[in-house]
Protein backbone atom coordinates (compact mmCIF):
# COMPACT_ATOMS: atom_id res chain seq x y z
CA UNK A 1 0.00 0.00 0.00
CA UNK A 2 1.16 3.51 -0.76
CA UNK A 3 1.60 6.10 1.93
CA UNK A 4 -1.91 7.62 2.30
CA UNK A 5 -2.46 11.08 0.90
CA UNK A 6 -5.54 12.87 2.22
CA UNK A 7 -6.58 16.38 1.40
CA UNK A 8 -9.45 18.64 0.47
CA UNK A 9 -8.46 19.77 -3.00
CA UNK A 10 -8.76 23.17 -4.64
CA UNK A 11 -12.34 22.33 -5.63
CA UNK A 12 -13.29 21.70 -1.99
CA UNK A 13 -13.60 17.95 -2.61
CA UNK A 14 -12.20 15.28 -0.26
CA UNK A 15 -9.60 13.09 -1.99
CA UNK A 16 -7.92 10.24 -0.15
CA UNK A 17 -5.39 8.24 -2.15
CA UNK A 18 -4.42 4.99 -0.46
CA UNK A 19 -3.29 2.66 -3.23
CA UNK A 20 -0.41 2.39 -5.63
CA UNK A 21 -0.53 4.08 -9.01
CA UNK A 22 -0.76 1.35 -11.66
CA UNK A 23 -2.70 0.80 -14.83
CA UNK A 24 -5.72 -1.36 -13.96
CA UNK A 25 -9.53 -1.20 -14.08
CA UNK A 26 -11.49 -0.16 -11.01
CA UNK A 27 -14.57 -1.13 -9.09
CA UNK A 28 -16.17 2.20 -8.18
CA UNK A 29 -18.55 2.04 -5.23
CA UNK A 30 -21.00 4.48 -3.79
CA UNK A 31 -20.66 4.43 0.00
CA UNK A 32 -23.97 4.86 1.81
CA UNK A 33 -26.43 2.13 0.92
CA UNK A 34 -23.79 0.12 -0.93
CA UNK A 35 -20.83 -0.41 1.42
CA UNK A 36 -22.43 0.79 4.66
CA UNK A 37 -26.04 0.91 5.80
CA UNK A 38 -27.87 4.05 4.65
CA UNK A 39 -28.77 6.14 7.71
CA UNK A 40 -29.30 9.49 5.92
CA UNK A 41 -26.39 11.89 6.39
CA UNK A 42 -24.20 9.34 8.14
CA UNK A 43 -21.66 11.06 10.39
CA UNK A 44 -21.68 9.01 13.58
CA UNK A 45 -19.12 6.24 14.03
CA UNK A 46 -21.50 4.21 16.17
CA UNK A 47 -24.03 4.08 13.32
CA UNK A 48 -21.46 2.94 10.75
CA UNK A 49 -22.23 -0.66 9.77
CA UNK A 50 -20.94 -2.62 6.80
CA UNK A 51 -23.58 -4.14 4.54
CA UNK A 52 -23.28 -7.95 4.39
CA UNK A 53 -21.12 -8.96 1.45
CA UNK A 54 -19.49 -5.55 0.99
CA UNK A 55 -16.17 -6.53 2.52
CA UNK A 56 -16.12 -9.82 0.63
CA UNK A 57 -16.80 -8.05 -2.67
CA UNK A 58 -14.05 -5.54 -2.04
CA UNK A 59 -11.63 -8.30 -0.99
CA UNK A 60 -12.40 -10.17 -4.21
CA UNK A 61 -11.68 -7.05 -6.23
CA UNK A 62 -8.42 -6.59 -4.29
CA UNK A 63 -7.39 -10.16 -5.06
CA UNK A 64 -8.04 -9.64 -8.76
CA UNK A 65 -5.79 -6.59 -8.87
CA UNK A 66 -8.55 -4.05 -9.38
CA UNK A 67 -8.53 -0.60 -7.87
CA UNK A 68 -11.44 -0.09 -5.46
CA UNK A 69 -12.65 3.49 -5.17
CA UNK A 70 -15.41 4.97 -3.01
CA UNK A 71 -17.15 7.90 -4.73
CA UNK A 72 -19.73 9.54 -2.49
CA UNK A 73 -21.84 12.68 -2.63
CA UNK A 74 -21.65 14.24 0.84
CA UNK A 75 -24.02 17.17 0.79
CA UNK A 76 -24.26 16.84 4.57
CA UNK A 77 -20.90 18.60 4.71
CA UNK A 78 -22.11 21.30 2.35
CA UNK A 79 -25.34 21.75 4.30
CA UNK A 80 -23.38 22.14 7.55
CA UNK A 81 -24.81 19.01 9.19
CA UNK A 82 -21.30 17.74 9.92
CA UNK A 83 -17.72 18.50 8.95
CA UNK A 84 -14.78 16.77 7.34
CA UNK A 85 -13.54 15.60 10.75
CA UNK A 86 -16.74 13.62 11.33
CA UNK A 87 -16.47 12.28 7.79
CA UNK A 88 -12.88 11.20 8.46
CA UNK A 89 -13.83 9.35 11.65
CA UNK A 90 -16.54 7.43 9.80
CA UNK A 91 -14.07 6.60 7.04
CA UNK A 92 -11.56 5.35 9.62
CA UNK A 93 -14.24 3.01 10.99
CA UNK A 94 -15.09 1.74 7.51
CA UNK A 95 -11.43 1.11 6.68
CA UNK A 96 -10.87 -0.72 9.96
CA UNK A 97 -13.95 -2.88 9.47
CA UNK A 98 -12.89 -3.73 5.92
CA UNK A 99 -9.38 -4.58 7.09
CA UNK A 100 -10.82 -7.15 9.51
CA UNK A 101 -12.01 -9.03 6.40
CA UNK A 102 -8.70 -8.57 4.57
CA UNK A 103 -10.18 -5.87 2.32
CA UNK A 104 -9.11 -2.32 1.49
CA UNK A 105 -9.99 0.60 -0.76
CA UNK A 106 -7.48 2.43 -2.93
CA UNK A 107 -9.13 5.85 -2.93
CA UNK A 108 -12.02 7.80 -1.47
CA UNK A 109 -13.56 10.87 -3.10
CA UNK A 110 -16.36 12.84 -1.45
CA UNK A 111 -18.18 15.85 -2.92
CA UNK A 112 -19.93 18.33 -0.59
CA UNK A 113 -21.68 20.38 -3.27
CA UNK A 114 -25.46 20.63 -3.65
CA UNK A 115 -27.70 23.42 -4.94
CA UNK A 116 -29.37 23.59 -1.51
CA UNK A 117 -26.10 23.59 0.47
CA UNK A 118 -24.53 26.54 2.23
CA UNK A 119 -22.00 28.81 0.52
CA UNK A 120 -19.55 28.10 -1.00
CA UNK A 121 -21.02 24.66 -1.76
CA UNK A 122 -24.44 25.88 -2.93
CA UNK A 123 -24.24 24.92 -6.59
CA UNK A 124 -23.90 22.04 -8.97
CA UNK A 125 -20.32 20.88 -9.44
CA UNK A 126 -18.48 18.66 -11.94
CA UNK A 127 -17.59 16.27 -9.10
CA UNK A 128 -21.12 15.80 -7.82
CA UNK A 129 -22.69 12.63 -9.23
CA UNK A 130 -24.21 12.17 -11.80
CA UNK A 131 -21.25 14.18 -13.09
CA UNK A 132 -18.12 12.05 -13.48
CA UNK A 133 -15.59 14.34 -11.79
CA UNK A 134 -14.79 12.14 -8.78
CA UNK A 135 -14.24 9.10 -10.98
CA UNK A 136 -11.97 11.10 -13.28
CA UNK A 137 -9.95 12.45 -10.35
CA UNK A 138 -9.39 8.95 -8.99
CA UNK A 139 -8.48 7.72 -12.46
CA UNK A 140 -5.86 10.44 -12.84
CA UNK A 141 -4.37 9.74 -9.41
CA UNK A 142 -4.19 5.96 -9.76
CA UNK A 143 -3.89 5.48 -13.56
CA UNK A 144 -7.25 3.69 -13.67
CA UNK A 145 -8.35 2.17 -16.96
CA UNK A 146 -11.87 3.59 -17.10
CA UNK A 147 -13.29 1.74 -20.12
CA UNK A 148 -13.38 -1.74 -18.52
CA UNK A 149 -14.35 -0.43 -15.06
CA UNK A 150 -17.69 -0.82 -13.26
CA UNK A 151 -19.70 1.08 -10.65
CA UNK A 152 -22.15 -0.11 -7.99
CA UNK A 153 -24.66 2.34 -6.54
CA UNK A 154 -28.14 2.69 -5.08
CA UNK A 155 -29.20 5.81 -7.00
CA UNK A 156 -29.59 6.75 -10.67
CA UNK A 157 -26.89 9.37 -10.18
CA UNK A 158 -24.35 6.58 -9.64
CA UNK A 159 -25.25 5.01 -12.96
CA UNK A 160 -25.14 8.43 -14.61
CA UNK A 161 -21.64 9.09 -13.28
CA UNK A 162 -20.42 5.72 -14.51
CA UNK A 163 -21.91 6.25 -17.93
CA UNK A 164 -20.46 9.76 -18.23
CA UNK A 165 -17.02 8.49 -17.19
CA UNK A 166 -17.05 5.92 -20.00
CA UNK A 167 -17.22 2.78 -17.83
CA UNK A 168 -18.41 -0.57 -19.16
CA UNK A 169 -21.35 -0.79 -16.79
CA UNK A 170 -22.99 -0.43 -13.44
CA UNK A 171 -25.14 -2.36 -10.98
CA UNK A 172 -28.02 -0.70 -9.20
CA UNK A 173 -28.63 -2.10 -5.73
CA UNK A 174 -31.45 -1.54 -3.27
CA UNK A 175 -30.99 0.32 0.00
CA UNK A 176 -33.14 2.32 2.40
CA UNK A 177 -34.54 4.04 -0.69
CA UNK A 178 -36.16 0.77 -1.82
CA UNK A 179 -36.85 0.18 -5.50
CA UNK A 180 -38.30 3.62 -6.20
CA UNK A 181 -35.23 4.63 -8.22
CA UNK A 182 -34.76 1.35 -10.07
CA UNK A 183 -36.52 2.26 -13.31
CA UNK A 184 -34.61 5.53 -13.57
CA UNK A 185 -31.33 3.79 -12.80
CA UNK A 186 -31.87 1.09 -15.40
CA UNK A 187 -32.73 3.74 -17.98
CA UNK A 188 -29.05 4.71 -18.07
CA UNK A 189 -28.25 1.44 -19.81
CA UNK A 190 -27.63 1.31 -23.53
CA UNK A 191 -25.34 -0.39 -26.01
CA UNK A 192 -22.33 1.43 -24.57
CA UNK A 193 -23.15 1.12 -20.87
CA UNK A 194 -24.63 -1.97 -19.26
CA UNK A 195 -26.85 -1.59 -16.20
CA UNK A 196 -27.89 -4.56 -14.07
CA UNK A 197 -30.22 -4.81 -11.09
CA UNK A 198 -29.35 -6.52 -7.80
CA UNK A 199 -30.69 -6.58 -4.27
CA UNK A 200 -27.34 -5.69 -2.67
CA UNK A 201 -23.62 -5.52 -3.26
CA UNK A 202 -23.47 -9.18 -2.26
CA UNK A 203 -25.73 -10.05 -5.20
CA UNK A 204 -23.97 -7.56 -7.48
CA UNK A 205 -20.72 -9.46 -7.15
CA UNK A 206 -21.91 -12.17 -9.52
CA UNK A 207 -22.97 -9.67 -12.19
CA UNK A 208 -19.64 -7.91 -12.68
CA UNK A 209 -17.39 -9.68 -15.21
CA UNK A 210 -14.23 -8.15 -13.71
CA UNK A 211 -14.92 -10.15 -10.56
CA UNK A 212 -15.79 -13.41 -12.28
CA UNK A 213 -14.09 -13.87 -15.67
Q: Characteristics of this structure?
A:
single chain; 213 residues; alpha/beta; Rossmann fold
Question: Can you give me a brief rundown of this structure?
Answer:
The protein has 213 residues and is an alpha/beta fold.
Chain-wise SSE layout:
Elements: E1 5-8, E2 14-17, E3 26-29, H1 54-63, E4 67-73, H2 75-78, H3 84-99, E5 107-111, H4 133-142, E6 150-153, H5 156-164, E7 169-173, H6 182-186, E8 194-198, H7 201-204
Parallel strand pairs: 3-4, 3-6, 4-5, 6-7, 7-8
Antiparallel strand pairs: 1-2, 2-5
Helix content: 25-40%
CATH topology of the domain at 5-145: Rossmann fold
Q: Give the tally of β-strands.
A: 8
Largest sheet: 8 strands, mixed
Question: On the 0-100 scale, what is the average pLDDT?
Answer: 96
What would you report as the Rg, rounded to the nearest angstrom? 15 Å
SSE pattern, N- to C-terminal: EEEHEHHEHEHEHEH
- Per CATH, the architecture of the domain at 5-145 is 3-Layer(aba) Sandwich
With strands numbered from the N-terminus, the spatial order across the biggest sheet is 1-2-5-4-3-6-7-8
Number of helices: 7
Low-confidence stretches: none
Supply the CATH class of the domain at 5-145: Alpha Beta
Shape: globular
User: What is the fourth-level CATH superfamily of the domain at 5-145?
Assistant: HAD superfamily/HAD-like
Fraction of residues in β-strands: 15-25%
Describe this structure in words.
The protein is an alpha/beta fold and 213 residues long. It has a domain at 5-145: Rossmann fold, CATH 3.40.50. Helices cover 27% and strands 18% of the residues. Strands 1-2-5-4-3-6-7-8 form an eight-stranded mixed sheet. The protein is globular, with a radius of gyration of 15 Å. The two termini are 25 Å apart.
Amino acid sequence: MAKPTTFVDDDGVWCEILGQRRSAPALFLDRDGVVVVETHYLHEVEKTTLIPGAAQTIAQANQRGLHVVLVTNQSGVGRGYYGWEEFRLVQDKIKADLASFGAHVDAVCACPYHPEAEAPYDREHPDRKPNPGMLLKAAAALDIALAPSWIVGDLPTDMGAGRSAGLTGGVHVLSAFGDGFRTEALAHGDKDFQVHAADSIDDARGLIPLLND
